[in-house]
Specification:
about 325 residues; alpha/beta; Rossmann fold; Elongation Factor Tu (Ef-tu), domain 3; six-stranded parallel beta sheet; six-stranded antiparallel beta sheet; about 35% helix
């Protein structure tokens, strides 16, 4: 498996089966397409290749409207490579590339640089300047060039197609069980643990803090969550607060994770927080004592939920 930036020059792959898409989230719909790419590649004895951008085009073209991405470029590339494809080819998306016509994208990128012999795209695929290209026009143009094209139908869950937009909405509204179902895994946030003001430790609930300011990812709304936290020392359940800590008059968005039954040092280490369930909204309490009492209730609820989940899977 190899990862290559198209700006470094055409990769020396040779004829291939190519999957094209944005692949933000690498959700279950994407995985159906990728499974088809790999299956066709093995059948035709060709490399299985994916082409995507680093960030969703909307993030560059309409930043004021973009709610956030489901995966950072690093997360997306890692997830794509883990599916079993042979190559992941990406291009940083910018305003210059946004002016590429559909025909130029097909002939210069897909056929000339990537040498596709069969192309797989999703049912709602659009491409080229102003998204003028569609899956139908792509297949017509490729047929004229002697290249096969497959349009992969939608994956339906809960009566609706799985899509990145639907998952973003689920996360942004705290519907984390729905997001997990559509992604095939929990929505997550990865960052390096920073020093906070140590109020959690003073109250008896030490936390691993992540700074959320400037994050490009879509995040759950401010509130308290039951999560799993992956660390170098292992995975732990955690009670997580996302917000500004209004009880103490703070304004900077922070993620604070209290890992259950953990006593190590995580400062300056990367951790991944996987969101499982929203417990409540963030609230301004009249005193730190009232906040401590609520945290104790939150912890009791979290432990009850963890125990119930273990009983169901036993």
């Amino acid at each position: 498996m190899r990862l290559v930036n198209l700006l470094s020059g055409p990769p020396e792959i040779g004829p291939c089966v190519l999957g094209v898409g944005t692949f933000d989230g690498v959700h279950l719909g994407h995985r159906a397409l990728l499974a088809e790419v790999i299956g066709q590649a093995r059948e035709h004895r060709l490399p299985a290749v994916v082409f995507c951008f680093d960030h969703p085009p909307r993030r560059v073209l309409h930043p004021e409207e973009f709610p956030g991405e489901l995966t950072t470029p690093e997360e997306k590339f890692s997830l794509l490579m883990a599916t079993g494809v042979d190559w992941v080819v990406f291009r940083p998306f910018d305003h210059a590339f946004a002016r590429t016509s559909p025909a130029d994208f097909i002939h210069r990128i897909i056929l000339a640089q990537l040498q596709a012999r069969l192309v797989c795209v999703g049912f709602n695929f659009q491409f080229g300047h102003d998204r003028r290209g569609t899956s139908e026009s792509l297949c017509q143009e490729l047929a004229g060039a002697g290249c096969a094209c497959l349009v992969i139908p939608s994956v339906i869950i809960g009566g609706e197609p799985v899509s990145s937009s639907r998952i973003r909405q689920a996360i942004a509204t705290g519907q984390l069980e729905t997001a997990t179902q559509l992604l095939g895994r929990e929505a997550s946030f990865t960052g390096t643990v920073i020093h906070g003001d140590h109020r959690g430790r003073e109250m008896g609930f030490p936390t691993a803090n992540l700074d959320l300011e400037g994050s490009s990812k879509v995040l759950p709304p401010r509130g308290v969550y039951l999560c799993l936290v992956d660390t170098a020392q292992g995975t732990h359940h955690a009670l997580v607060n996302i917000g500004i800590r209004p009880t103490f008059g703070r304004e900077r968005m922070t993620l604070e994770a209290h890992l259950l039954d953990f006593h190590g040092d995580l400062y300056h280490q990367p951790i991944r927080v996987r969101f499982q369930k929203r417990l409540r909204a963030e609230v301004r309490f009249p005193s730190s004592q009232a906040l401590v009492a609520q945290i104790q209730e939150d912890l009791a609820l979290a432990r009850h939920m963890i125990g119930s989940a273990r009983e169901r899977t036993a």
